[in-house]
Design goal:
By secondary structure, chain A is α/β, with parallel strands linked by helices. Chain A is built from eleven helices and eight strands. The mean pLDDT of chain A is about 85. Chain B starts with a helix and ends with a helix. The chains are: A alpha/beta, B alpha/beta.
C-alpha cells in the first residue's frame, strides 16, 4: 500500500464526517447565522481551535456569494483553499542532502508523543540515501527508553551512542556529536527524554543539551524538531510556545495521524507559527512516516 | 487563557441592568462565553453543548448577592455543576473479588499506561498491603516489557519473567498460572497502546479481556487529549467495558477538558490522576481540581464562597451608598482594610468590586505588599475622628503626630493620603458612570499601586 493511500485510509473516518458535516450545512440555501455556527462547530470538532475558527468564519461571513455559489461544492472549495493557503507555506521537504556533515538533529517533545519511534522511522528513511547515521540515546530518564532506541537502531541498522540510565543527557549528546564528527557521519540524531513544557528544571536540562552541542559547533543543532501528538488538543500551542523559548524550533513532526480526529490542530499550528512541518507519522511500523505534503493531506482531509 | 473569562462575561453583562436575579437573557449570553471557554479547554463539542443545556435552567432566577456581579455568580454555578458532573460515584479502586483481583490497563500509544500501572501497583501495595504481579502484554513496542520489568524491579514489585516471542494470549495464560502458584492478590495487566479504530488490535483487546475477566478495566488517557477524547472513550468503552478512567500528565499546563468529555461519554468515574513521572506521582481524583482547570476560575469561585459567608450585606450597601455619593472617608477605608484582611488580601477585595476584573489583573501584576495593610490600618487608627472624615485638614504637625502614633513615618502617611485622594476621584468617576461599572475607564492609575508596594 503506498503512503498516500495509507494516509487517505487513516483519515477516511474524519473526512467522511467532514464531508457529511459540510453537506448538512450547505443544503440550507444561504450562509446565515445558523450555517456559520454549524460550520464553526464542525471545525471545532477537528481541534482547529476556537480562535482560528472565529477568524475563519469571519472571513467566510464577510464575503458575498451569488446564489449559484451557495453550493456544497463551492464552500468545500473555499474551505479547502483557505486551509491550503495556510498549509502550503509550511510544507517543506526534510529529506534533502545535508548542507554540512554531520548534520545535527535534536528531537524534543512532551512525554509519550512518539519521539523514539519517530527517530527509528526517520533513520529508516534517511538511510535509503546511503547515509551514515548515528543516534544518541539522551533519554536517560525513562526506564527502557535506551533499550527501545537500541532495538530500533538494530532494526534499521544505524549506530547508537548510549550511557547508563540516569547519566547526564547532555554528556550523551556531546559524545554522540563528537563521535559523529570524528567518524564522518552524515547525520547525528539526538533522542531526548519527554518533558512537559511547564517543568522548569526539565526545560533547563534541555537547554543544557543545546549549550553543550554548541560548544563543539556554535551552529548546532542544525535542526531542532518538536514532535507533536495529533491527539493533543489546544495544549499543542503551549508546547510550541514554551519549547521555542529555549531554542528555535526548525520543524515539526506530527505523529499518530492514524487515529480519528486528525489534522485540525496542525492547521491551527501552521496558521499561528509558520514552522515547517517536516513529516507526519501514521502508524507504528518503520515505514509509517513520510513527508508532509499539503495537497495530499488536504485531499485526504476534505474529500475522500 | 481564561484569566479574562470573568472579564469577557462582565463585558457581556455590562449591557444588562443588574437585577436581583439572573434572567434568561443574561444566562444565555454568559453561557455562550462559557461554552467557548469549555471548547478552548478541549471539552468535546457535544459534551460542552449538553453541559450548557443542563446548567441553564439551574442558573436562571438565581439571586445575585449585593456584593457579587452576575458574572461571578454564573461562574460559581457553572463550576458547581462541573464538579457535580466530574465527580459523583465513589472512585476508589475495587478489590472486592476472590483473589487474584485482575486489572487491565488500556489506552492509546503514549498515554502513560506502563508508568501508571506501576503507580497503581505501588498504591495498592501501600494502602491495601497486597501482593501484586505486573504483567506486560505489549509485544509490539520495542522494549515495552523491559520497561515494566525495570520499573517493577526498581519498586520491588514482582513482574512476570519475559519470554521472548510469546504472544499476548500466551503471556496472559502464563501470568494467570504464575499468579495462582505464587499466591498473588492482585494482577495488573499492562497492554500495548492502540488506536481505537485499529480493529485488529481492538479485537485482540476484547479477546484478552474475555480471558482475563478483570474486576477493573482502566482507560489510561492523556489529559492533553483534544476533541477526539469522546471517540477514544466511546470505542474503548464499547470494546472492553471500562470501569474507570485514569488521567495522566495532569502536571502539565493542559486545561484537561478531556476529563469532562470522557466522564460524560463513558459514565465511568475518573479514579486517579497521574501527576508526574515518579512512581509516587499519583493522586485520587478530585473533581474540584479539574473543574478549576477547565474553567480556570478557581479564584472567583472561592471568592464567591467567602463573600457569601463573610461580608455583612448592610456594610457593603453602606459602602456602596458612600461610593455613589462620591464620599469615601478614612473610616470607610478602614472598614475595607479590615474586610480585606478577613477575606484574604487586597487583590481579592478589589476583585469583588463589580466590573473590575481588568483592574484585578493590574493588581496581580503590580505585586502589592499585603503587609502594607497593617501599617495603613495603624495610620488611620492614629487619626482623630475629624481627620478621618475630612482628610484635607491633615497638615504638617498632624502628619507628624500620626506618623509617630502609628509607628510609621511621614512618607507612608503621605502615601496613604495621596492614595485616598486618588480613590476618592475614582469613586466619583464610578458613581458618574452609573455606580456599578467602570465602563470605559481604563482601570486604576498606575501610581495608585506604587503607593501599595
Amino acid at each position: 500500500m503506498n503512503f498516500f493511500k495509507k494516509l487517505k485510509d487513516s483519515l477516511k473516518k474524519t473526512s467522511e464526517n467532514f464531508t457529511k458535516g459540510i453537506g448538512q450545512i450547505f443544503d440550507k440555501s444561504k450562509p446565515n447565522v445558523e450555517t456559520l455556527k454549524d460550520l464553526e462547530e464542525f471545525l471545532i470538532k477537528s481541534d482547529v481551535g476556537v480562535k482560528f475558527v472565529n477568524d475563519f468564519s469571519k472571513k467566510i461571513a464577510e464575503k458575498k456569494y451569488l446564489k449559484q455559489e451557495l453550493t456544497k461544492e463551492n464552500f468545500l472549495k473555499i474551505i479547502s483553499n483557505e486551509i491550503k493557503n495556510i498549509l502550503k507555506p509550511v510544507e517543506k521537504n526534510f529529506f534533502f542532502e545535508p548542507i554540512t556533515k554531520p548534520y545535527v538533529i535534536l528531537i524534543c517533545g512532551v512525554n509519550g508523543v512518539g519521539k523514539t519511534t519517530t527517530i527509528g522511522k526517520l533513520c529508516k528513511k534517511l538511510k535509503k540515501n546511503n547515509k551514515k547515521i548515528i543516534v544518541g540515546a539522551a533519554d536517560t530518564f525513562r526506564a527502557a527508553a535506551i533499550d527501545q532506541l537500541e532495538l530500533w537502531c538494530k532494526k534499521v541498522d544505524v549506530e547508537i551512542i548510549k550511557s547508563p540510565l540516569g547519566s547526564d543527557p547532555a554528556s550523551v549528546a556531546y559524545k554522540t556529536f563528537e563521535t559523529a564528527k570524528n567518524n564522518q557521519f552524515d547525520y547525528c540524531i539526538i533522542d531526548t527524554a519527554g518533558r512537559m513544557q511547564n517543568k522548569k528544571n526539565l526545560m533547563e536540562e534541555f537547554s543544557k543539551i543545546i549549550r553543550v552541542l554548541k560548544k563543539i559547533d556554535i551552529n548546532t543543532p542544525h535542526e531542532t524538531i518538536l514532535v507533536l501528538d495529533a491527539t493533543t488538543g489546544q495544549n499543542a500551542i503551549n508546547q510550541i510556545d514554551e519549547f521555542r523559548k529555549i531554542t528555535p524550533i526548525t520543524g515539526i513532526i506530527m505523529t499518530k495521524l492514524d487515529g480519528t480526529a486528525k489534522g485540525g490542530i496542525l492547521i491551527a499550528i501552521a496558521h499561528q507559527f509558520k514552522i515547517p512541518i517536516y513529516a507526519i507519522g501514521v502508524g507504528e511500523k518503520e515505514d509509517d512516516l513520510d513527508n508532509f505534503v499539503a495537497d495530499e493531506f488536504l485531499e485526504a482531509f476534505i474529500k475522500n | 487563557m481564561f484569566e479574562n473569562l470573568t472579564g469577557k462575561i462582565e463585558d457581556v453583562f455590562s449591557f444588562f441592568k443588574k437585577g436581583t436575579r439572573l434572567n434568561e437573557e443574561q444566562v444565555d449570553e454568559g453561557l455562550r462565553k462559557i461554552r467557548q471557554a469549555l471548547l478552548e479547554s478541549d471539552v468535546a463539542l457535544s459534551v460542552a453543548k449538553e453541559f450548557i443545556a443542563n446548567v441553564k435552567p439551574k442558573a436562571i432566577g438565581q439571586e445575585v448577592l449585593k456584593s457579587l456581579t452576575p458574572a461571578q455568580l454564573l461562574i460559581k454555578i457553572v463550576n458547581d455543576e462541573l464538579i457535580k458532573v466530574l465527580g459523583g460515584e465513589n472512585s476508589n479502586i475495587n478489590l472486592n473479588t476472590v483473589p487474584p483481583a485482575k486489572m487491565l490497563f488500556v489506552g492509546l500509544q503514549g498515554s502513560g499506561k506502563t508508568t501508571t500501572s506501576v503507580k497503581i501497583a505501588k498504591y495498592i501495595e501501600k494502602n491495601f498491603n497486597k501482593k501484586i504481579l505486573l504483567s506486560s502484554l505489549d509485544v509490539y513496542r520495542p522494549a515495552a516489557q523491559k520497561q515494566l520489568e525495570f520499573l517493577g524491579n526498581q519498586n520491588n514489585i514482582q513482574t512476570l519473567p519475559i519470554i521472548e516471542g510469546q504472544l499476548p494470549i500466551e503471556i496472559t495464560q502464563r501470568t494467570l498460572a504464575t499468579a495462582n502458584l505464587s499466591g498473588t492478590d492482585v494482577i495488573i495487566f499492562d497492554t500495548a497502546g492502540r488506536t481505537q479504530i485499529d480493529s485488529v488490535m481492538m479485537a485482540e483487546l476484547n479477546n484478552l479481556k474475555k480471558i482475563i475477566n478483570p474486576i477493573e478495566t482502566f482507560l489510561v488517557a492523556d489529559s492533553l487529549t483534544g476533541q477526539d477524547a469522546v471517540n477514544i472513550a466511546n470505542e474503548f468503552k464499547k470494546t472492553v467495558d471500562l470501569t474507570g478512567v485514569i488521567l495522566t500528565r495532569i502536571d502539565g499546563d493542559g486545561k484537561g477538558g478531556a476529563a469532562l468529555s470522557m466522564r460524560s461519554v463513558t459514565g465511568c468515574p475518573i479514579k486517579f490522576l497521574g501527576t508526574g513521572e515518579k512512581v509516587d506521582d499519583l493522586e485520587i481524583f478530585h473533581p474540584q481540581r479539574i473543574a478549576n482547570r477547565i474553567l480556570g476560575m478557581g479564584d472567583v469561585v472561592s471568592l464567591v464562597e467567602k463573600v457569601s459567608q463573610n461580608l455583612k450585606r448592610e456594610e457593603v450597601e453602606e459602602l456602596e451608598e458612600n461610593f455613589k455619593k462620591g464620599q469615601f472617608t478614612f473610616n470607610d477605608y478602614l472598614k475595607q482594610i479590615r474586610q480585606m484582611k478577613k477575606i484574604g488580601g487586597m487583590g481579592k477585595i478589589i476583585g469583588m468590586i463589580p466590573g473590575i476584573s481588568k483592574i484585578k489583573k493590574q493588581i496581580d501584576e503590580a505585586d502589592i505588599d499585603e503587609s502594607i495593610l497593617n501599617k495603613q490600618e495603624a495610620i488611620i487608627l492614629s487619626m482623630t475622628k475629624k481627620e478621618r472624615d475630612n482628610p484635607k485638614i491633615i497638615e504638617g504637625s498632624r502628619k507628624k503626630r500620626i506618623a509617630i502614633g502609628s509607628g510609621t513615618d511621614i512618607t507612608l502617611v503621605n502615601k496613604l493620603l495621596k492614595q485616598h485622594k486618588m480613590m476618592t476621584i475614582m469613586m466619583k468617576k464610578m458613581s458618574q458612570s452609573g455606580g456599578r461599572n467602570f465602563g470605559g475607564m481604563e482601570g486604576i492609575p498606575p501610581e495608585l499601586f506604587n503607593n501599595l508596594k
